Amino acid sequence: MFDRRALEDAAETVYRALGPTPQYRWPLLAERCGAEVWVKHENHTPVGAFKVRGGLVFMAGLARRGGSSQGLVTATRGNHGQSLAFAGRHHGIPVTIVVPHGNSREKNAAMRALGAELVEAGRDFDAARETAERLAAERGLTLAPSFHPDLVRGVATYARELFAAVPDLDAVYAPIGLGSGICGLIGVRDLLGLRTEIVGVVAARAPCYARSLEAGRPVATDRADTIADGMAVRVPDPEALTVMRRGLARVVTVEEEEIAAAMRHYWTDTHNLAEGAGAAPLAALLRERERMRGRRVALVLSGGNVDLALFARLLGQS
After folding, report:
1. Rounded distance, CA 179 to CA 280, Å?
2. Low-confidence ranges of the chain (pLDDT < 70)
3. How far apart are CA 196 and CA 188, in angstroms?
4. Do 74 and 167 belong together in one domain?
5. How far apart are CA 179 and CA 173, in angstroms?
6. What pTM was computed for the model?
7. Residue 192: its pLDDT value, please?
8. Residue 68: what pLDDT?
9. Do the strands 117-120 and 296-301 form a parallel or antiparallel pair, or are they unpaired?
10. Domain that residue 227 falls in
11. Residue 85 has what pLDDT?
12. In what order do the strands lie in the sheet containing 117-120?
């Protein structure tokens, strides 16, 4: 996917706009999970999610190539859109973002606040992606995919930080959305020659990657309806699937109730707000508590962008 020079170039691009995020060891999480638990806090970026790293690298490459005179368009449930809106403002490139109907109101507001034009279309992410493709053709816009080598290199910088700060990790649990984050994690692990297991996490109500990995080929689903909207994908990316097949130790599928409980645990144990996708790795570790007992484990808290009304409802279920 990338070599060391490409990774360092991506890091230089990212760090011109933001600093590294922390990774903390939380005692209450250790007690809960029966392991030494480190959390990579990608909820601490300027847009509250890891995606901003990829947006900065993708937009810098686009600006260098001069392929953005009319602006660009993308589809998102929120964090990818915020990343491109943030990076577009940084580079002076107009950004149009397509979200599905019923998308997070607070993520929508954040994207508009970053200067993006927001278009609502379709019932889910994959339907919104079809609208983005149509708008690109109609308006002469550059179509920004959700999985691209520059996006992967950008988000891989979080893995670069994590592995440098916490050596000898036995495993890292990370959510699977369309795949950029976990593919970047696999790429850095392999570049460094580490033996750390990478464990992918999917929602039971958005299982396309779990089914695809089991089948050995892309398998789409009819629905992807989960509180973990960053993982709500129906159609897997073939390139991402190839990387995962080669680099994942396994995939853990978690239920909605487990994701909600993990969101509450992050709040009580670390005082951090975790969106569904960000909390899913903790849910997976708790499911594998006996398997990972006494080991050194990292969790990727990929984002903290959750609507207040949803979070308040989930808190009330404790």
Report:
1. 15
2. 67-69, 318
3. 11
4. no
5. 13
6. 0.94
7. 97
8. 65
9. unpaired
10. 4-49+149-315
11. 95
12. 117-120, 95-99, 72-75, 142-143
